[in-house]
């Protein structure tokens, strides 16, 4: 059993001030309290919290709204929230209930109201009860301050309840549903049956404790690093969302209610981000959910006709590029998750590969550009000075032509693996060939991945750092070619060959970590590449395409530099401060990178069931695999200073290569690292020790 | 005596990687070492440091260049640097010496060379000695990596020395001078007379210990906060630079060498930044330097004909706006510093006020815009859609018309105070009237400071958050009107009246801390206002115009909110991490804000010798004033939680107002705060308790 660590109040936006506390994550509702006049309440949204007295844990939060000395406590269950307000005695007790959108309210008793909200595009239902009767509610008039904290154009509307001046504690509990009002009330009755805040809090604590206890860490790292680690683990565990309610769920792709039949339906995913780190982490620490997640994807394919990439309640959001469900399915399948319809999943992946556009931020059929891709093996960029002529291209998001080619190559490699597993030999050969398309955008004259026009020539005057316009979108996805030139997760060996061999590959990696802004001010670079935060040289830890890059030294005989880089990144860019992570968390993708890296390994190429070894920051790490099995990692003599692996043993056998397989972990076992202050440049350096970089 | 705290390796640029360690602050020289082939060395610039083993203190640094296992130690004196390199035995010992510019080298013996460098626009001289003879030096061929870390267009050039393979320790010491080569050598002989690294290090430690011991803090704050505090103090103490060498100095404004006659000549200042916090801090902790600093300014005025704002070796740099030497002189004078020629200083300030342009980033005579200002009392902005027609305006920096009016009003108030002290009654009345010009750019219709065209109308369609173009430069200086509307340091009472009274003023302050990006992504805002970092709402702690704003609650009866805000800012935006401060340090301006705020007070209006009380983070603060005098601040029961002042006593008398005078500090004394977890909203809240906000 592990003590739950306090969760730091972190994020890259101004969450420290703007707050995240007046709602619960499954809904958009906001509940507020104060003793002032109703018209003033909106300014309490954020700045009236005394942050030095706040308590924030996964299961409980406590705040002082210091303007009116109202103390707020908050706990939650899967579909419900429970608030406890402590008002100063002798002052009126007002409550202000609002949503961000155009909600409809129906007061059903002096102590309860029902409401619905369609503002997110999906109808949500809320049933709210108060512990004591309040005076009749009045419609709230929104103020400028409240509006300023809400998304553009949305006005807060809601109800104000005025209590009498003698009650000093007032409680509110709310049940939420996607199904209907009755289910919202039923969820509340099932999950928070009594007016017993302590019981609800204890239950929430127990559930989170179970979840966070899947990994136990001790020693080596500081208390601060433990806080960062468990905060990251907490964030990783928040996705995907299980929207099953009472063995039913509202199907977002066919807008009807289904029986769950004992399974669970999951939603809310950003596969472009999460295929890299969050899903692989889940295969280790929450394997019991993985098959239902895969089944949810298959169901969504069946309901919509497309395999989704960004499945949300509103449908498959048209964001980013790639067919990365291929990585999710291949990674899961080859790790042994098989309780889903692989044939059907494969059908969906294959359909996407042939019939869906590869264009960024589009969800539709193919354009002439995909036809070009099928024939020529690369996504064509516009020639220098050429104007866009393909109507399907999102004018803002443009072609991102090189990134599309690179990421599609990786996805096709995953499809090829699944085809082989299914005995579809022809498909396997076809997609294995497509998986090599990354080579078609490598410009041997410059050594960089580069845009290629439809006539086969590389686009003129291409600069790997600065070209591509806003966010690099003409050619790349949010990062520049310095980063995307390493975007060959599935065939690192092939990439090393392209770049001229191991020494040159190492020098290229070093260059990435050393490069600057060519004399420009940093903000000039960030204005063009605003997602490239968390910079170390030109390496952007703040954005996902960077995640696997520090681990690539392992593939060219210098694992000690992987060890050094990941330690430096963790030290520089992750903290327990209000601004604790270097970029968007992206549904736990960033946090999962940290959880992996802090444990000492990371999956460079999901779909290939291995993990690349870095440098664990804790001396004793126990992963509870369930069923009484554990995988334990011990870093002897490990410390901030002793970050270099001198030697390693797996289950008593010497481990001389810088990687382990998923099976090594999943069957339970014991990995020992002997750590020291200076690199052992020999360990894992032999060519034969390199992780599998090709199939 | 205080233990010197380790200095965190902090900064807002990528200093963690780019490093600051291969030179010493007075020069631009770079010295490197490695055992590899000379052609490879440049890549050691930065990324080859093992940051987890580095030691960085004010007096000593130690690094491992882990690519070649070379251990580097470094210490310094006022004009010299001393390196000690430990090479692995049996490997060749190479040294590579370079500067950032086109330096000239002359080898004067097998163990020494002289060099000069003109690349900064001022000739610098270096005399470098090695502890052992080296093989003949060869010209270094620059590599791409080294070039990438240097300012744009500059190529590293230098010499490579190749040692034999048996020496494992090699030392280098360098003397620096602005005067000549002989003085460079003489500085080395005087300051680092022996090949004794330990002695040099001990001496440097002692000097920094004396400097940092001026403030002793204990209790309440964490070890981390002590590290942040002493790091900030260390940075504050680095400016201005005393360039006196052997009782002579090179006069940067007349390019000749002068006798110092026992005084010291100071250079390198950014008055736009430093008048606010760094200079006021110096009047407390290093008063013995203040008169010479004032005399240096007077000398520069005499030599150049203008009172400088950004005095550097290259002359008065044409940056920013204002005549802020007025604040420096008035603040010093009214704090009792009088060993300088006030008449001459006043002459210079007055000349600037009448004959120098107010235009941003210009140093020249008046244009038609100043003539307009003298007549109408505000700096005119262009009307909407009007094209710039005044040839003197810097096309990139534009007019910054509202900020010019506001900052000039403040400077003129300072000049008025000095005129009164000098008995210049007419001048005093004239400048006191000009000090009210801020009212001319306050738009009562909107409540914001706003641009006004030459016809007297306010510019149409003005948005206080977004208008003004890049960095707000049409109307403002790096910040928007939300911030600049509080830029009336000298007449807060008048500003409160303009804004409609205390309650509205408080609401406006709250709005600033709550406001957002109007639904835009944060980077859109930062692209326009890249200096507005360290945001809390729209309050930008990362830029100087914000610094006094959290203390303004004191002026409207809510000191508890000042206490709350400054604690929240210190907690959110200052850390001992690699990225430890929220914006540029600007010659110690940012660090001095922290030193003041951590001690519990801050000067809202330099020129008026009072300090506004915030909330000290330590429980016992002793300022050593010299001559056996101390000012001691005790915060009873103070902690992260207990940040609110319940009551206070100064020298045994109840202190009921949230400010103290400079005299209270400078004469020594004892200030006690009684701290608690909840605000005492009464303390300091009476109108009569407000700090003097008007003269």
Structural notes for this entry:
The structure is a homodimer of 695-residue chains. Chain A is an alpha+beta fold and 695 residues long. Among the domains of chain A are: 5-212, Beta-galactosidase, Chain A, domain 5, CATH 2.70.98; 253-354, Up-down Bundle (Glutathione S-transferase Yfyf (Class Pi), Chain A, domain 2), CATH 1.20.1050.60. In chain A, α5 packs across α19 (589-599), α10 packs antiparallel against α12 and α12 runs antiparallel to α13 (425-434). Chain A is globular.
Topology (SSEs and partners):
The structure is a homodimer of 695-residue chains.
Chain A: H1 15-18, E1 29-34, E2 55-56, E3 60-65, E4 70-76, E5 80-86, E6 94-99, E7 104-109, E8 112-117, E9 124-130, E10 138-139, H2 144-148, E11 157-162, E12 169-177, H3 181-191, H4 197-212, E13 215-218, H5 223-236, E14 241-242, E15 248-251, E16 256-259, E17 266-267, H6 271-274, H7 278-285, H8 287-304, E18 311-312, E19 315-316, H9 325-334, H10 342-355, H11 368-376, H12 401-421, H13 425-434, E20 442-443, E21 448-449, H14 481-484, H15 492-498, H16 502-514, H17 522-528, E22 535-536, E23 539-540, H18 559-573, H19 589-599, E24 601-602, E25 610-613, E26 620-626, E27 629-636, E28 644-650, E29 653-654, E30 659-661, H20 662-666, E31 669-676
Parallel strand pairs in A: 27-31
Antiparallel strand pairs in A: 1-6, 2-3, 3-4, 4-5, 5-12, 6-11, 7-8, 8-9, 9-12, 10-11, 13-26, 14-17, 15-16, 18-19, 20-21, 22-23, 24-25, 25-30, 26-27, 28-29, 28-31
């Amino acid at each position: 059993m592990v003590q739950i660590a306090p969760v730091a109040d972190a994020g890259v936006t101004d969450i420290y001030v703007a707050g995240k506390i007046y709602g619960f994550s499954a809904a958009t509702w906001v509940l507020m309290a104060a003793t002032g006049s109703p018209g003033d309440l909106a300014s309490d949204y954020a700045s009236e919290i005394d942050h030095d007295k706040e308590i924030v844990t996964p299961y409980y939060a406590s705040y002082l709204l210091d303007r009116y000395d109202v103390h707020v406590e908050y706990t939650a269950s899967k579909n419900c929230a429970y608030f406890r307000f402590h008002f100063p005695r002798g002052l009126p007790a007002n409550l202000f209930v609002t949503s961000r959108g155009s909600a409809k309210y129906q007061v059903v008793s002096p102590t309860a109201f029902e409401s619905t909200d369609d503002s997110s595009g999906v109808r949500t239902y809320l049933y709210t009860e108060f512990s004591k009767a309040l005076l009749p509610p009045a419609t709230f008039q929104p103020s400028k301050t409240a509006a300023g904290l809400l998304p553009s154009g949305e006005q807060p509307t809601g109800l104000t309840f005025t209590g009498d001046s003698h009650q000093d504690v007032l409680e509110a509990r709310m049940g939420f549903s996607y199904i209907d009002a009755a289910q919202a009330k039923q969820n509340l009755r099932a999950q928070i049956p009594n007016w017993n805040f302590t019981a609800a809090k204890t239950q929430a604590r127990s559930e989170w404790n179970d979840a966070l206890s899947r990994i136990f860490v001790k020693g080596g790292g500081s208390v601060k690093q433990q806080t960062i680690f468990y905060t990251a683990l907490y964030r990783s565990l928040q996705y995907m969302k299980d929207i099953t309610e009472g063995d039913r769920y509202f199907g977002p792709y066919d807008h009807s209610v289904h029986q769950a039949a004992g399974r669970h339906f999951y939603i809310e995913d950003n596969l472009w981000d999460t295929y890299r780190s969050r899903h692989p982490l889940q295969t280790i620490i929450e394997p019991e959910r993985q098959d239902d997640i895969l089944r949810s994807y298959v169901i969504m394919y069946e309901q919509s006709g497309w395999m989704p990439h960004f499945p949300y309640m509103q449908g498959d959001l048209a964001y980013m590029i790639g067919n990365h469900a291929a990585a999710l399915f291949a990674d899961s399948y080859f790790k042994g998750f098989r309780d889903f319809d692989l044939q059907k999943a494969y059908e969906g992946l294959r359909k996407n590969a042939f019939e869906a556009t590869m264009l960024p931020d589009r969800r539709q059929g193919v354009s002439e550009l995909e036809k070009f891709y099928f024939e020529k093996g690369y996504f064509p960029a516009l020639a220098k000075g050429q104007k866009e002529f393909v109507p399907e291209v999102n004018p803002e998001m443009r072609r991102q032509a090189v990134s599309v080619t690179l990421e599609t190559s990786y996805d096709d490699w995953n499809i090829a693996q699944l085809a082989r597993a299914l005995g579809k030999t022809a498909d396997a050969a076809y997609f294995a060939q497509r998986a090599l398309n990354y080579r078609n955008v490598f410009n041997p004259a410059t050594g960089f991945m580069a845009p290629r026009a439809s006539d086969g020539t590389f686009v003129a005057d291409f600069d790997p750092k600065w070209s591509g316009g806003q966010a690099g979108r003409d050619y790349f996805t949010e990062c520049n070619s310095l980063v995307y030139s390493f975007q060959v997760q599935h065939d690192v060996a092939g990439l090393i060959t392209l770049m001229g061999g191991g020494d040159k590959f190492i020098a290229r990696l070093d260059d990435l970590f050393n490069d600057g802004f060519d004399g420009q001010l940093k903000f000039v670079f960030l204005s063009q590449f605003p997602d490239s935060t968390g910079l170390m040289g030109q390496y952007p830890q703040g954005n996902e395409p960077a995640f696997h890059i520090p681990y690539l030294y392992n593939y060219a005989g210098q694992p000690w530099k992987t060890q050094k880089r990941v330690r430096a990144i963790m030290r520089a860019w992750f903290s327990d401060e209000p601004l604790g992570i270097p970029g968007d968390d992206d549904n736990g993708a960033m946090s999962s990178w940290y959880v992996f890296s802090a444990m000492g390994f990371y999956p460079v190429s999901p779909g290939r069931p291995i993990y690349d070894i870095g440098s664990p920051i804790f001396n004793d790490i126990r992963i509870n695999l369930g069923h009484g099995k554990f995988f334990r990692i011990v870093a002897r003599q490990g410390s901030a200073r002793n970050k270099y692996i001198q030697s390693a043993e797996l289950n008593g056998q010497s481990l001389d290569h810088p990687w382990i397989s998923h099976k090594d972990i999943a069957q339970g076992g014991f990995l020992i690292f002997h750590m020291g202050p200076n690199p052992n440049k020999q360990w894992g350096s032999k060519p034969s020790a390199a992780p599998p970089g090709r199939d």
